[in-house]
Amino acid sequence: MSRLVNAEHLRASYHTPDGREVTAVDGVSVHIDEGEVLGIAGESGSGKSTLGAILSLTARPPLYVDSGSLEIDGQTQALDGSSKIPRTWRGSVVSLLPQGAMNSISPTMRVRDLVVDVMRAHNRSVTKDEALDRARDRLASLDLPTRVLDAYPHQLSGGMKQRTVTIISTLLNPRLLIADEPTSALDVTSQKALIDMLLQMLEQKIMSGVIFITHDLPVLRTVSNRIAVMYAGKIVEVGDAEELTTAPRHPYSAALLSSVLVPEPAYRKMRVYGIPGAPPNLAHPPSGCRFHPRCGLVMDECHTEEPPHVGDQLRFSKCFWALKNPGQSVPLKAVTASSLSETDTVVEDDDDTTSRPDDEPSEVPA
Amino acid sequence: MSEIFAAKELTKTFGHGKHVVEAVKQVSFSLQEREVVTIVGESGSGKSTLARMVLGLLPITSGQMTFQGQDVTHLKDRAAYWRDVQAVFQDPFSSFNQFFTVRRLLHRSLRLLHADVGRERLEESLQYVGLTGPDVLDRYPHQLSGGQRQRIMIARALMLRPKLLVADEATSMLDASLRVNILNVLTDLRDELGMTVLFITHDIGQACYVADRVLVMENGLMVEQGSTDDVIFNPQHEYTQRLLSDVPKLHQAS
Fold it and tell me: Mutate which of B21, B139, B142, B177 to disrupt the A interface (most A C-beta within 10 Å)?
């Protein structure tokens, strides 16, 4: 498999009105091979959507990219504003399927009007009929009814709307599609239909790679080849989807996994605990390992030192525990010990009364 | 255990003539005291319409509802009914008035109560959901996280000591870790206060975790109901089987 995308040392921050900088993505590098789906997991506020905005070249103030480069098909693009991003990249090289895209179709326009707008924005010489033919072919090849083109958004169900915007955002055959929480507002049946469609599109080579951002680990396990887990603006663990969900090597991944509810008999009897506390305020990230205040396996060095990079590029975890226990997976029990669950009742100790509002920037997508 | 709520052949139709839509068709069920009952179904199956009827927010086309033996199909005094039946809705971001502090918001619900019990109830119900008064009371909604907002909504409902709490997709907008916390709060409250909870969700994983009984709806019809173990691990109806097969698996199916 050849390398499709290489994004290195991405760092971006939100500038607050009072002149401070909140770094929402801090030194993240990701790569995607041809035909691969990379899943990005993490809680709300961990910087997932910000990463999506950077990679899709849609970072806008108050989000500023401080450093980083994006290489697609051998072409390199600096993202830090030193060189202008060619307009043609957006939509045809990388395409973003933003959060809540299904509710952003204009209610007064038919779907086909949007299709024509999208096509003509990139190539003025495309006629209306050519654009619609292309959309019709695309729908037919994915076994969807072509009548959605003549519908108004309110005539389509949520699942259908989401599939329609997905198709429109890939009309220009982008090399990379970044899908930000595409399944979160859908019920399980529509989720499955959307995932099946995405995989079918990959197979038909409509796009060559997908970055799938969600907090839903079971969905990621079904859709993606590899998963990267983000916490407080950094990637803490990367691994094969199957391996990461069965044998996580970072306590945060283990904690995320342990709070997932699936319909299995074991869940009838046991009590599941969420991760104690809340993600840190990125204006003042904790010292050392950023997860240490909430970690069940915390050690002395976690408080002060930056966690080491354990493993190779394809399977790594940034954790002292993983360094001391090479090759082992984090025991799920340890991160959700009942002693921790007691601290769970308090969301945050309110010493940081002033800081709460600052959490917001990391959640505002571009 | 005694029956607290019963619905008999509830039907709701919207529209007239040829545009008529039957959103809920002849649905019957009952809730026992101290029970957590979950309604599952995909979007558009009529779950929320049913919840709104139970809450007295939508007029009922036909059928009958009884609450504690009283007929509540056509309510005259809805405020009195809401002292016993309260709701938590899906979106913790839009169910707040942005210009009100939490204190003002909660005080408005206290109008249903006598003034003298109000103040203690307020503190007490915040404690149940793991928040403390001084922390949150003078905050505005934008200063709170999604999980905190949803907990305040639960606290608001709890102040009235409802006998029945209807939670309509109350956890759908939260991430997995917060979701578990809210579900734990709900089940603990059932144990401590003896509440009955009607929990509406499309996520079978959550239903499996909290529910004593599960009701399955498809296109306005109640297609299956029974104890959680029966419905989820031994589904009889073809629709329930399909719903279950669509759930993404975390562990390899064995």
Answer: B177
The residue count of chain A comes to 366
The string of pLDDT tens digits covering residues A18-71 is 888 899 999 999 999 999 999 999 888 888 889 999 999 988 888 999 999 999
Q: B146–A158: do the CB atoms touch at under 8 Å?
A: no
- The C-alpha torsion from A141 through A143 and A146 to A147, rounded to 10°, is -170
Burial grade of B168 (CB within 10 A; 0-12, 13-18, 19 or more):
buried
Average pLDDT over chain A reads 85
The verdict on a CB contact (< 8 Å) between B43 and A44 is: no
Strand-strand pairing, B221-227 and B213-218: antiparallel
Tell me which chain A residues have a C-beta less than 8 angstroms from the C-beta of B251: 245-246, 262, 264
In Å, how far is A117's CA from the nearest CA of chain B?
30
CB distance from A43 to chain B under 8 Å? yes
Each residue of A255-287: pLDDT tens digit?
888 888 888 888 888 888 888 777 888 888 899
Interface of A with B in 328-357 (CB under 8 A): 344-347, 350, 356-357
B3-246: CATH, from 3.40.50.300, 3.90.1570.10, 1.10.1240.10, 3.40.50.620: 3.40.50.300
Q: Kindly give the pairing relationship between strand B36-40 and strand B213-218.
A: parallel
Measured N-to-C along each axis, helices B238-246 and A188-203 cross at an angle, to the nearest 10 degrees, of 50
pLDDT at B213 (0 to 100): 94
Position A364 pLDDT exceeds 50: no
**Which string of DSSP letters, residue by residue, matches B146-211?**
HHHHHHHHHHHHHTT--SEEEEESTTTTS-HHHHHHHHHHHHHHHHHH--EEEEEES-HHHHHHH-
Residue B3 has pLDDT above 70, yes or no: yes
**From B180, B233, B249, residue closest to A272, measured CB to CB:** B180
The domain locations on chain A are 248-310+320-363
CA distances from A112 to A149, A167, A171, A197, B138 (A): 5, 12, 12, 20, 49
Domain residues of chain B, as ranges? Answer: 3-246
Distance from CA of B57 to the nearest CA of A (A): 24
Q: Are B211 and A268 in contact (CB under 8 A)?
A: no
Stretch A314-329: mean pLDDT: 88
Tell me the residue type at B105. Answer: L
Residue B80: closest CA among B60, B103, B56, B104: B56
Contact criterion met (CB below 8 Å) for A49 and A365: yes
Q: Which helix (H) or strand (E) holds A229?
A: strand A226-231
Distance CA(B217)–CA(B203), nearest Å, equals 13
Q: Is the pLDDT of residue A242 over 50?
A: yes
Q: Copy the structure tokens of residue B52.
A: 């709104």
Enclosing H/E stretch for A198: helix A188-203
CB atoms under 10 Å from CB of A290, counted, come to 25
Which residue shows structure tokens 């993983």? Answer: A322
Q: Which chain A residue is nearest to residue B201, measuring alpha carbons?
A: A187
DSSP-based three-state secondary structure for B22: strand
User: Which of A192, A262, A273 is opposite residue B180, by nearest beta carbon?
Assistant: A273
